[in-house]
Specification:
Strand content: 15-25%
CATH architecture of the largest domain: 3-Layer(aba) Sandwich
Number of helices: 14
Number of domains: 2
Structural class: alpha/beta
Oligomer: single chain
Radius of gyration: 21 Å
Strand order of the largest sheet: 4-10-9-8-7-5-6
Number of strands: 15
Helix content: 25-40%
Distance between the termini: 38 Å
Largest sheet: 7 strands, mixed
CATH superfamily of the largest domain: Type I PLP-dependent aspartate aminotransferase-like (Major domain)
Shape: globular
Length: 404
């Protein structure tokens, strides 16, 4: 059983109030709040004193310890083969630009890559720019505008023996759709293409297994799963070793450190480990990996009825852009209210202490395909494991009030 009130007690930010009402954070797809354990973990190196890596003194050894611990935590979270497959950076976008630049060095004119119209622009623009620099053609795989699903067959039809990369989202940050990444990866590998997976949105909502899905590279951001603003990349060891990194000369030539430009934020890395440990604490098992998987199972069982309740009671004046059911999606909903623009709806809900996003949330291609990019986008509502039945009731009531 999952105890939502016990989980909520760990988050200081959940006591925030607005207009006399406790705030309900439905803005998780744009960034989650953090538990007290993450805050305390980040305080430790700042209070004790931390130095740069590689020294012979205690504060430098602390930096080494924090970095190694964060790499192992990332490996446990993603199901990586080893800790040295985990690379840290400022954010997912920066890591993807760096990796696209390195991969583009291996492409030749006449090669092709595939991106999708379901993706956040951080998994589209870096590849478009890299392809332009390398003289490589780009194929856009489009999701079904009626079902909001991205079928593996659509990507398979675009693949040729000159396809070098498929960039795919693990879950849409706009519509919540979860594509069959494993099927897409099998098709890509069959023609010799690499697979780059954006798991930023998915990481908070389900278990990640890079080996089972066949991802050659996978990126995420800790602030989406109750951690600090730090990007994470998991890459197969052989590719990380063989690819040429853009780096300063004294930086390591091997391992994950080869891809980390400059000094990392050690306080943030401590927070990454604490965030992963927090997720593991939601479940049971002999290892941290087992506890993470069990925690996701428990949270899914808890949230599923809330998803069904919201979808059934949102009101006929609320248009949903996405799968109208709990299967094949994250608890993330893009909606619009009849006769109101998205910004006005978000402002009205904020008056009731309900925090939601509006606009395109960098999902440029998804919003363009459904005709919302130029009209203000949509309201985005996201549930996380600390969302309560009472909060969803408030949301339903406030949406109903907008109709009146």
């Amino acid at each position: 059983m999952f105890d939502v009130e016990e989980a909520r007690s760990r988050f200081p930010a959940l006591t925030r109030s607005s207009n006399g009402r406790t705030v309900a954070y439905f803005d998780g797809p744009g960034g989650t709040q953090v538990p007290r354990s993450v805050i305390e973990a980040m305080q430790r190196p700042l209070e004790e004193g931390v130095s740069n890596l590689g020294g012979v003194f205690a504060s430098s050894r602390l930096a080494d310890e924090i970095t190694a611990g964060a790499r192992q935590a990332g490996a446990d979270l993603f199901g990586a083969s080893e800790a040295d497959e985990i690379v840290f950076g400022q954010n997912m976008t920066s890591l993807t630009f760096a990796m696209s630049r390195a991969l583009a060095r291996t492409w030749q004119p006449g090669d092709r890559i595939v991106v999708t119209s379901l993706d956040h622009d951080a998994n589209i623009s870096p590849w478009l720019l890299a392809a332009a620099d390398a003289g490589v053609e780009v194929d856009m795989a489009r999701f079904d505008s009626a079902s909001f699903q991205l079928h593996a067959g659509v990507i398979e039809e675009l693949l040729t023996d000159r396809t070098r990369l498929v960039a795919i989202t693990h879950a849409s940050n706009a519509f919540g759709t979860i594509p069959d990444v494993a099927a897409i990866a099998r098709a890509a590998h069959a023609v010799g293409a690499l697979v780059y997976v954006d798991a930023v949105h998915y990481a908070a909502h389900g278990p990640i297994d890079v080996r089972a899905m066949g991802a050659d590279f996978l990126v995420a951001s800790a602030y989406k799963f109750h951690g600090p603003h730090t990007g994470m990349l998991c890459g197969q060891r052989d590719f990380l070793e063989d690819l040429e990194a853009y780096k300063v000369r004294p930086a390591p030539d091997h391992g994950a450190g080869k891809w980390e430009t400059g000094t990392q934020s050690f306080e943030s890395l401590a927070g990454v480990t604490a965030a992963v440990d927090y997720l593991a604490g939601l479940g049971a098992g002999a290892t941290r990996r087992q506890r993470i998987l069990d925690g996701h199972r428990r949270v899914h069982e808890y949230l599923s009825p809330l998803v069904d309740y919201f979808l059934a009671n949102r009101g006929d004046h609320v248009t949903l852009y996405g799968i109208d059911g709990g299967a094949g999606r994250t608890p993330t909903f893009a909606v619009n209210v009849d006769g109101m623009d998205a910004r006005t709806v978000a402002a009205r809900l904020a008056e009731d202490g309900l925090l939601v996003w509006d606009g395109h949330y960098y999902a440029v291609e998804p919003m363009r395909q459904v005709g919302l990019l130029e009209s203000g986008g949509a309201v985005r509502i996201g549930f996380v494991h600390t969302t309560t039945t009472e909060e969803v009731d408030r949301l339903v009531d406030s949406l109903a009030a907008l109709k009146r």
